[in-house]
Amino acid sequence: MEVDLLSRIQFALTAGFHFLFPPITIGLSLFIVVLEAMFLRSGETAYRAAAKFFLKLFAVIFAIGVVTGIVLEFEFGTNWPVYSRFVGDVFGSPLAIEAVFAFFMESVFLGIAIWGWNRVGRKAHFAATLLMCIGTHLSAVWIIAANSFMQTPGGFELQYENPSGAVEILADSAVPTAAQIPYTRAVITDFWDMAFNASMMDRFLHTVSASWLCGAFFALGVCGYMLLRKPEVRFSAQCAKAALVYSGVSVIFMMFTGHGSARLLAQTQPEKLSAFEGHYATSKNAPLYIIGWVDEDAQKVSGLKANGFFSLLAYGAFDKEVKGLRDLPSDEFLKKIHSGMSPEELDAVRPNYWPPVNFCFQTFRAMVYLGGAICIFVAWGFWLWLFKRLFDLKYRSSRLFWMAAMFSAALPVCASQFGWAAAEVGRQPWIVWHILKTSDAVTTAASASEILFSIILFSCIFAAVAGLGVWVVYKKITGYNEEDA
Questions:
Q1: pLDDT tens-digit series, residues 264-281
Q2: Dmax of the chain from CA atoms?
Q3: Which of 62, 67, 160, 340 is deepest in the core (most CB within 10 A)?
Q4: What is the spatial distance between Cα 126 and Cα 129, in angstroms, rounded to a whole number?
Q5: 137/133 Cα distance (integer angstroms)
Q6: Of the candidates 84, 152, 146, 86, which has an alpha carbon nearest to the alpha carbon of residue 433?
């Protein structure tokens, strides 16, 4: 395999593995704040015990996330040096802010929250927990700001150092040539436009709502285990109710933010949105496929469809026209790269600027259908609660719910993974949208065999880290007793 493909695989594996953990910690941090707030309000020690217990689980998962995230920082330099030089001024700023402010804020107050139970007052401890939660969310703000720049870049200019050594400012929306790329840098002109670019807030809100679900379902799973295997644990029922309400709020928020993100794609990244739907021909009343398979060679989709619903999703009306991939990217954009080509020649090269359509089509549906399963599961829980069967284990439906809850924690995590895969692969072939291609940003210093070796090595290390982390979390859950509180 080529260096380009292997580097993509390596980054996908390491980033995907790392992304298993931050969504859980983001969601758990807010849940712990809720538990501690309920303890302050009611004085009920069960909430204090639950907050203390989940803080320990948070710390373990947080530590794994930190260890796995470090690898990604090095990969920017080892596998993507052209990218690092090209956007270093832009990409480095939010990452530096995340590390210097948000990460240290989160770490410092996590330490106070874990070891300060009997050393600081109740309100001071709650303040530390709240600030830990804020730090966790601020980390997400700056990481997503950096990633969103790759999707919808803004607040920058391209500086090109010509052969004479003079620096030129390339025109807005210019696409540097392969010869210009090594001598071109993206430089911030407006920090806030860069950080809060066109897609940042939509992506942040959707990612955070998905993370809240990850934390809520993790808590539900732990409570399910306690209810079924450790009924003597006092906080199980109260904690389970809080987790179910948290899940319900997060589901509603996720649905609205997901729809908003899809609508935004129609304006900012139409190629990606059309790839999600396998939409090749520009048309009104565009169909939404419930299930299907994309034949990329024939440029057609086979499956069950609902006519007009893609137009409704993208533009809010059935009769709205949706651009198809055969018209995306536009001729105007392609002429920036292939000047002098005829319309027929542009049509021939246009597919080179599409992402892998079937992959995007399937991963997007996997995310959506897992989201649907999450909604059904939450509704099941509220139905049991409404009929006062949620904690009455003599009913089979109640026992089944809590047994399912023990494994349902994987649902939002898997949905997040599929959503991340669809979003990142849907950006291809661009590493920075409509500016820098991924194939132009990869290293030329490492060989394919060296990258393959590192993939194998990282896979073994990550497997060991994952195994150790799961074992520690499992032992903390199964070994919990009331004396720990």
A1: 888 899 999 999 999 898
A2: 82
A3: 62
A4: 5
A5: 6
A6: 152
